Every structure is written in structure tokens, then in C-alpha cells.
Amino acid sequence: MLTDQNWVLSVGVFLPLAGVLVMMFIPKSDELLVKFVGLLAALATLGIGIYTLAEFDYGQAEKLQFAVNTSWIDVIHSRYIVGLDGLSLPLYILSMVITVLVMIYSWNHVPSPGNPKAFYMLMLVLQVGMAGTFVAQDLVLFFVFFEIVLLPMYFMIGVWGGENRQYASLKFFLYTMFGSAFMLVAFLALFFKTGGTTFSMTQLADLVQQKYAEGGLTSTTMNLIFAGMALGFAVKVPMFPFHTWLPDAHTQAPTQGSVILAAILLKLGTYGFVRIALPILPQAAKVFAPWIGLLSVIGIIYGAWCCLAQTDMKRLIAFSSVAHMGFVMLGISTLTSYGINAAMFGMVAHGLITGMLFFVAGSVKDRYHTLEIKRLSGMLKQVPKLGWIMGFAAMASLGLPGLAGFWGEFPAILSAFEPAKGNVDLAIGPLSVNLYRTFMIIASIGTVFAAGYLLWLYQRTAFGTPTAEFAGLGADADDQDDHAHGAHDAHEGAEDTGHADGHHEKLHDVGIFEWIAWAPMLAAIVFFGVYPQAMFKVFDPAVSLISKKFGG
Amino acid sequence: MHLLLSPMQQTDKLISPSVNWGSLTPLLVLLGAGLVLLVGAALSARGWAKGLYATLTAAAAVAAGVLQFVLWNSTVHHGPKSLVGEALVVDGPSLFIGISICAALLLAALVTDDYLRREDIDSPEVYGLYLMAALGGLVMAASNDLIVLFLGLEVLSIALYVLAASHRKRIESQEAGLKYFILGGFSSAFFLYGVALVYGATGTTRLRGPESIKTALALTVETDKHRALLVVGVALLLVGLAFKVAAVPFHSWTPDVYQGAPTPVTGFMASAAKAAAFGALLRSVVLSMPELRDDWRPAIWVLAILTLVIGSTLAVVQTNVKRMLAYSSISHAGFILVGIEAAAHGGESGDRGIASVLFYVLTYAVLVSGTFAVSTLVGRSGDGAHGLDSYRGLGRQRPVLALALAVFLLAQAGVPLTSGFVAKFSVITAAADASSYAIAIIAMLAAVIGAFLYLRIIVSMFLEDGDAEGERVSIPFGTGAAIGISVAFTLVVGFFPGWLLELARDAATRLY
User: Fold this and answer.
1) Where would you say this protein principally sits, based on its record (chain B) (predicted)?
2) Distance between CA B359 and CA B492 in Å, rounded?
3) What residues in A contact B492, CB-CB < 8 Å?
């Protein structure tokens, strides 16, 4: 039975704002209270999220639940339409979980130049934008949330980032805005060309088919509108030629920013394809699918090669995102239920795994004050727990069966074996099987590269003996002492992040806040690796609804 | 009042038109306040108490604004009407733009008070000129006759020339005034020549209503003979008004004048003068010559695209913040021209276009007033610290001020939940509705280029290390109030745009 609790989503989306409001009145110097209120707001939001999980009717996961459809800005025909179906639910919850975990991690890892008040407030605003994007069912509302996300991330990179932060944050902002420019015009064109009365996604999807059947909407128009949307989403994903902002943003962003960026923000793009571009304009999607597939496999190979060439750990992980999102987009481009399911799973899995890798990278940077791969060595000796966690995340990332990464990557490749067969009713032809099988072969070569760069990274940083400059600083030097002062050291580590290279305090292993922040992600990677059905069954009904249009 | 008679009505005996004094009150209030200021201050030997000039000006602005609201109410109930023998009209667009001008005047008065005292050049003339300029702007926006429009234009322009030069201690200010005067004189001449040619072709200078240019064009029999004359005339009108709104290629005065003029005056120019000029453009060409739209709409299209692209591109390479804002105001003019282009299509999408222009004009007037208010403060005494360096570290030194400027800049960049986003959105919507997709996409790309500029200033304030050069920025009460009002308006409209959009739409459909 569908629940009629229509307050759930609005509260879930906007609750963090209440936290922001409260925090405004707390003096900046009272850092503990600021962090506490921020975390509390995020936890309360997650509480609503868990309630949503419990109340969600999994039997009708293809339907929009908790739906609200009320007037918003009547003059421009935009309505406040929110709803949650199987497509959005996992991503919606993931955004809440990640925000809480990142806040816990930030408890003693507020990056230089400090100011936890602003940092926590930005994370809460970011959470509003992310959650809002996943539940919006009105194109204008979607666009607003999609854009809100930009600003907090811009400031997060720009203020708390690395040395090159200004360049990176500007590039991030302008690239995404460039994409959204086309996206907005495409949305408006869609509205006016179909003669819609609202910007409701479902209404517009119906109208497009109606108009197309009547001949009021030519395929050229539909293709152009699709191209505009696709450009906006592709920049965010990011797909191959539009990816150049990503390595810079990731490298310069603070750990927390990188984690959120990788875990959630990139998914806004792929989610946009699945939620908006494909269902509303299926005919055009079929036309563009081979091109999207082509760019995806280029991204897979190119991303992997770039990874092999990187000397910076964080940059390497960033490029691995390009490759992984290539798999996700390849799955989407097959337009089959199998492929899109894999893509959706891949989004969540990539969010957990790459988020985890960025966490590890951040902690490495905290300890060693460098992420240069050649200066790092023998982590397993010096900080064994951190080393093992990194190994675990790397294995998950390269798609080891039994861990979550596998279920995003492997089915995505497999789905290219048999792309969408087409749908006569909607005048959609089949996709070229030969072309997609070629994609499949190239993509599977990509997995070999993925294993290559990740294992090589792991081998260079975790194995071997510590380099001279860090020798003797390890946690192995006197284990007992470390246990006694674990919490104290962790605190010190946060304050010392600004220190110049050359002066090293003792290395300490994974601290308590790191454990709290990471444990749920590690557990989820294993859980969804062993029992992927838990998530597939949520996606599948909604995905089938979309893939049906393409005959799959 | 017989000067206001249109030539068509001239007979042997002058017939005075009936004057609806009630509907003229907003103009009279501004005129009266201006005269009181100038005469009163001249008569009192020692000058008035501190802040009294500004208080009077602000009060007049508020009163004129409120009176226009009252008129709006009666327009809603009794429909739009014309005054003084059809020379002026009271209708939706005229009142909406009039209120925008009054808002700009209020903000300018608040900022100028502190500025003049800081620069130690406090005097009543500046306020008198502000009031006259606003009066001229109101006349422009409400005129239904090209001659009256020209009168308004001149009252506005001459006041602005003097205002631009009003900082007697700064040579740049004098230069700006002179430059503005010479180029402005040219543009007025173009406009006047255009009026003459249009009169020659149509036999009237009245814009709408009976025996007007609009009806003459609709009949076409007579005007077809003089078509060339008419088209050249319209082109000249466009040149004159494009100069006032600072559209490319008639923009070259803008950076220099904006940079040289006293900063509060720059804010007033960018808000009130632009609003008035767009009101005049709507009235004189878009609304009065729809039959001729195939001839002039391409010109607007080209103007809009040039203005968008060149304005935002050149803004990026500037290092002086006032110059940056000058180019950014050019690019905003381009955005409004996109709305004008949509309005030119007529019909329902045309109404949408007019509404988007009105909405943009009001929100931009408030935004830009707020922006220049902050810039006035950062300029510090001497009004010279306008380099990007002067903003460095402002976020640490004056967090609230920096935050306010960030709000203005982000709104100008078109970030959601600010008035700027809604304004851009409504303009782009109007363009999409009119199927002007090319122009819509170019506008959005120009916004992206423009965003770089705004972010540069924000980067300077928050992200760059080091302290701002020179003395600590002080925030006096009046300017602080102006900034506060502008921020509140920007955010309220950003979060709840519905009511204002509706108001703009109602105004657009209540045409005389």
C-alpha cells in the first residue's frame, strides 16, 4: 500500500536547513557546539531517511511514493513536485549517510584554515541540494537543486582546498555551469515545444510521445533537446571529453569535499540521464546511445591510462572515477533493463568505494603530509590498519567479486552483449549489436587496466619498506604507546595538517573517528557485494519501466 | 502645459488638455522635493542639518513609490489611462518601471549621504539632481509621445552628466562627466533626428492610442510611401536608446564613465537610468511599432547578442572592480534585450517578454544599487580603492559586508535562490517561448562567462590571503541600511519569486 505521508520527503530534504539556522546563532569560537549541532542535524535527517526506508513500499518500487504535488511558482508553471521511487531511494539515502559520515570524519579533521562553523554549514546546504535533486520531479525544481549543489562545493574547494584551489574551484564551477546552461534551455524548449502546462517530468514524458505521434514534434527537435540535456549531465558525470575539471577538483578539494564529490555529486549527472533524458526523450536517447557508449568506453580506457601515469594518489583516484563512471554510462547506453540496473548499482557502489578511497587518501595526507606515490611506501608496516583498509577499498574498486564494485562493473560490461532491441510502438529501432559487442570487449580490457593501476598503487604505497624520510615514525615502533595515546594523537594530527613538509610527527594508525566514519561504508561494501539483490530489487521495477520503452 | 500638446492637435486656438493632477502626483512629488531642496538650501545661509538633504530625497522617493502603488491599485480596478492630452500614460509597465526608479533613488540617497560626508563635499545639489534625474526617468517610462519622451530623456541625461562630474576633487570624475556629456549629446541628437523622421513618415509623434504612430502603421496606406524614412527613423531612435542602455556597439562610454563617476552615482546610473531607458525602448519601439517588427527586431537581436558576448567577455579581463561592474552591467543590458526581443514577437509570448523585462529591470536595479553601495564603502575615502586588490581579505576584515557583496554577485551570476536567477530564468523562458533558442543559448553562455568575473571578486574577498590594502572599511548607517534592504530583497525574491512575477505579468498585460 502506498503511504500517504507526504511530509516525509520535504522534511528529509529541508531539515538540514534548520541545522544551518541554529548554527548561525552559535558563535564561531564554540567549535564543539557547532560540530555537535551540525552532526545532530545530519543525524536527524538520516533518521528521517531511515524512516523513509522503513515506510517505502518495496512492492511498488516503480511508483512515486511520498509524492507531493503542490503549487510553487505558478507564473512560470513550475510546481513543487517531489516523489521517491526505486531509482532515487538508494541515492537519496546514500547522500544522507555520506553527509553524516563525512561530518563524523570532520570532527577532528577540519582542514586548514579551520572554521568548522562555515564548513559544517556548507555540508548541510550541500545535503539539501543533493537530496533535493534526487526527489525533484519537476524540471525547474530539479534544476534549482542541481545548481544549489554547486555553490557549497565551490566554497569547499576554494576555501579549504589545496594549493591550487582557486583554479580548481573556478574550473569546477564554470564547467558545471556551462553544462547547465544548455540543460536549462533544453528544459524550456521541451516545455514550450510540447505545449506543457507544468514542468512535471511524467507529464512532459507523456506529452512528448503524444506530440511526436501527432507530428507536432520532429525528431530533429527531440535530438537537439536531448543533446542539450545530455551536455549538462555529461559534464557532471563527467564523461570523456568533459572530464577535465574532475582531476583538478578532486586533487584540490579537502578530503570531505572529495568524498562528497565522488560519492554523490557525480551521480547527479548519471541520475539525470536515467531519470530525465531517457524516459522523456526515448527516441532521441536511442539516436545518441551509441555515441554515449563510445564516449564511455573511451572514458574507461583513457581514465585507466591516465591513472597509470599519475604520481599523486588522489589524482589517481580521481581519474579512476572517470573510468568507473564510464562503466556506469556504458550500462545506461545499452538502454536495457540489465544495463541500467547495473549502472544504478554502479553509482551506489562507486559512491561507497571511491568515497572510501578518498577518505583513505585524506588520512594518508594527514599523516604523511604528502600524497606523492613515490614518497609513500610500506604503509602496511607503519600504519597497518590504514594500509589494510586501503587494500580492501582498492580490491573493491577493481571489481573483485564478493564486494560491491563487482556488481556495478561486471553486469554493465555484460549488458553490452545484448543492447536494446527497440520498440515498434514508439518507433525505436534496435541498437547495433556488433557495435556494442565491440564496446564490451574494449570495456573488459579496461577492467584489466583497472586491476593494474589499483594493484600497482597498492604495491607502491603499502608494500615494501618505508622510505627514508618516514622511517622510524611508524605506529609499529612502539605499539603500546600508540594505543594509550590514540585519541590524543588523532587530535594532534588534525591540528598539524598545516605543517610544512620536513617536520613529521609520529605516524598513528586509524583513529576512533575514522573508524566510526568508515565502518558503515566498509560494511556496506561487503553487504552489497555478498547480497546485491538487496539493492537490485529496489531499482529493478523502476528501471524496467524505463527500459520497456526501448523494448528491454 | 501647452508644450506637451502633440502637433496633431494644434489649431488656431490652443486648447488646454485636461490635466489629471491626481495621476501626476508621483512626478510632482519628485519635482517639488527637488525644488525645495535647491531653493531652500540656497536660502539658508549655513546649509541644513546633517543628513536632512538625503532624508528629504529618500522621503520623496518613498512617497513617489507609494503614490505609484496607489495608482497601480486604481489601474487594476479602472484600467490604464492617459493624462495631459495623451502625452503621458499611467499603465502597468510605466508604474512598474517608475517604482523601480524610485527604489533606485531611495537606495542611492541612502548611500550618497554617507559618501558625500566622507568625501567632505556634502551639498544639496547632488540630491536635487538625483530627484530631477528620477523625474526624467519617470517621464520617459510613462511617455506616450516621442517629444515628451525626449524631454524626459534630456532631464534625466543632463542631471546625470552633472552628477557624473559632481566629485569636484577628483579629476576622473570631471573627465567622466565630460565624456558622458559629449557622447550623450550625440545620442540625444540621434534620437531627436529619429523622432523627426518618424514624424515625417507618420505625421504624428504620439505613440499609442487614437491618431498615433501605432494606428498609422496599422493603416499602412500612408506610411508605405515613407517606409524608408520610417525605417531610418526607427533605426536612429534605437541608436539613441541603445546608447542609454549601454548596448554594444554603443557602450564605449560605459566603462570610463562608470569608473570615473562617484560610486553612488554609478550605482544610480546603472539602476535608474537603465530602467528608464528600457522603459522608453519598450514604449517607443516595441509597443508602438509592432507592425514594423520585421524591420527592427533583427536589429534588437543583433544588439542583444553583441551586448551579451562583448559585455561578458570584456568584463573578464578587467582588474578594476568598477570597470568590471560596468561591463557586467552591459552584459545585463544584453539579457534585458533578450527579453525585449521576446517581447517583440507580440502575442502571448510577447507579454511574457514584457513581463520578463520588467522583472529584470526591477531586480537588477536593486542588485546593482546594492553592489555599488558595497563598492562605495570599499572605495574608502578618496573613492579610489577600486582595484581587485582592495577587496582582498575583505571576507576576514568585514565578513558581513563581504557576504552581502557575495550575495549580490552570485545573484548577478544567476545562482538559484536569488532574484538574479529568477530574472535570468524568466528572460530565457520568454526567449524559449518565442522560439529564439539561439539567443537563449548565447545568453546562458554569456552568463557562464560572466560568472567567472563575479567569482573572481568573491575569490579575492574570501579565498586570497593577505589583508585588504588601506584603512579598515567603515560601514555607516545609511549605506548599511541600503545594503541590508538590497540583500533582503534579493533573497526574498529569490526564495519566493511568485508574487513579483505575477505583479510583472499583470503589469505587462495592463497596457494603455
Assistant:
1) membrane
2) 14
3) none
Rounded to a whole number, what is the distance in Å from the CA of A238 to chain B's nearest CA? Answer: 18
Residue in B closest to A77 by C-alpha: B498
Q: Per-residue confidence at B262, pLDDT binned at 50, 70, 90?
A: very high
Contacts of B435 in chain A (CB under 8 A): 192
- A536 to each of A51, A293, A327, A403, A419, how far by Cα in Å? 20, 22, 17, 15, 19
Q: How far apart are CA B392 and CA B60, in angstroms?
A: 37
**Mutation to test the B interface, candidates A13, A20, A76, A220, most B Cβ within 10 Å:** A76
Long-range contacts of A101-104, Cβ-Cβ distance < 8 Å, separation of 24 or more: A101/A259, A101/A517, A101/A518, A101/A520, A101/A521, A102/A256, A102/A259, A102/A260, A102/A517, A103/A35, A103/A38, A103/A39, A103/A42, A104/A39, A104/A513, A104/A516, A104/A517
Task: Quickly state the pLDDT bin for B222 (edges 50, 70, 90).
Answer: low
Pairwise CA distance, residues B315 & B375, whole Å: 16
Across the range B465-473, mean pLDDT stands at 63
Among A509-518, B357-366, B411-420, B472-481, the range of highest mean pLDDT? B357-366
Neighbours of B12 (CB within 10 A): 4
For chain A, the residues whose C-beta falls within 8 A of a C-beta of chain B are 72-76, 140, 143-144, 147-148, 150-151, 154-155, 158-159, 165-166, 169-170, 173-174, 177-178, 181-182, 184-185, 188-189, 191-192
In order of A111, A404, A485, the CA distances from A494 in angstroms are: 7, 31, 14
Cα B33 from chain centre: 21
Write down the number of H helices and E strands in chain B: 21, 2
- A435 burial type by CB count under 10 A (0-12 exposed, 13-18 middle, 19+ buried): middle
**B462 DSSP 8-state letter:** I
The nearest CA of chain A is from the CA of B460 a distance in Å of 10
CB contact under 8 A, A188 and B432: yes
Residues 6+ positions from B375 with CB-CB distance below 8 Å: B263, B266, B267, B321, B322, B325, B386
For chain B, the 3-state helix, strand and coil shares in percent, each to the nearest 5, are 75, 0, 20
Cell of A552: 528491454
The answer to whether A158 contacts B448, with C-beta atoms less than 8 Å apart, is: no
Residue A497 has what pLDDT?
44
Domain boundaries, chain A: 293-483+507-552
Residue B101 phi/psi, 5-degree rounding, is -65, -40
Residue B11: its pLDDT value, please? 54
Where is pLDDT greater, at A149 or B79?
A: A149
Of the candidates B227, B212, B207, B384, the residue with the CA atom closest to the CA atom of residue B283: B207
Q: What is the pLDDT of residue B241?
A: 93
Q: Which of A198, A207, A75 is nearest to A136 (CA)?
A: A198
Question: For residue B1, what pLDDT band results from cuts at 50, 70 and 90?
Answer: very low
Verify whether the Cβ–Cβ distance B448 to A177 is below 8 Å.
yes
In which band, very low, low, confident or very high, does the pLDDT at B6 lie, cut at 50, 70 and 90?
low
CB contact under 8 A, A177 and B429: no
Mean pLDDT by groups of 10 residues along chain A of 552 residues: 74 91 84 90 94 89 87 85 91 93 89 84 92 93 91 88 87 89 91 89 90 88 93 90 91 92 92 93 92 94 92 91 93 92 93 93 87 84 88 91 90 91 85 92 92 90 81 58 43 43 65 89 93 91 90 75
